[in-house]
Design a protein that fits this description.
Elements: E1 8-16, E2 22-30, H1 32-37, H2 56-64
Antiparallel strand pairs: 1-2
Length: 68
């Protein structure tokens, strides 16, 4: 793995949503200096959204073809 264990942290949360179903989500945090070591930093233009999101059908097709 390109990162040391002390440079990466992830948080998991789950709970019952308004619809009564369980939902889960997680956040991944990577130390900024670790990203810079790989040539990544927040000032890069590619670090920001540069175009509109693909249409809904594209996302649905990607989820149908996802391999878990």
């Amino acid at each position: 793995m390109p990162f040391d264990q002390t440079e990466v942290r992830w948080d998991l949360a789950c709970g019952v949503g308004a619809d009564g179903r369980w939902h889960g989500w997680f956040d991944v945090h990577i130390n900024a200096d670790a990203l810079r070591r790989h040539g990544l930093h927040p000032d890069q233009p590619t670090a920001r959204v540069a175009a509109p999101s693909p249409p809904g059908w594209w996302h649905a097709a990607a989820e149908r073809h996802a391999r878990w």
